[in-house]
Amino acid sequence: MANEIERNGIPAVLITNLISVAAHMKVNRFISGVSIPHLLGNPDLTLAEEKKLRRGIVNQALAALST
Question: Is the dihedral of CA 41, 38, 12, 21 positive or negative?
Fold first, then answer.
């Protein structure tokens, strides 16, 4: 999906845990998420820790988007 979005001139970042698949599909920009059932979070963390984790992942995606 990221490749199709990029073909239409819109930069995209894929957040995934399947890094090998993203590389095989030649996705231009991708970053790793936390885990398969909780891609952007960790239910074992406190609310404040999870918010910090999510903000970090989004900041990584934004940094990748700006390259």
Answer: positive
3-state secondary structure of 14: strand
Across-strand partners of 31?
15
User: Tokens standing for 67?
Assistant: 């390259």
Mean pLDDT by 10 residues, the chain (67 residues): 89 92 90 92 94 96 92
Q: Let me know: does 30 contact 45? Beta carbons within 8 Å.
A: no
Residue listed under structure tokens 């239910």: 43
Q: What is the CA radius of gyration of the chain?
A: 13
CB 14 within 8 A of CB 27: yes
Query: Could you tell me the residue ranges of all domains in the chain?
Result: 2-65
Residue type, 42: N
Residue type at 3 in one-letter notation = N
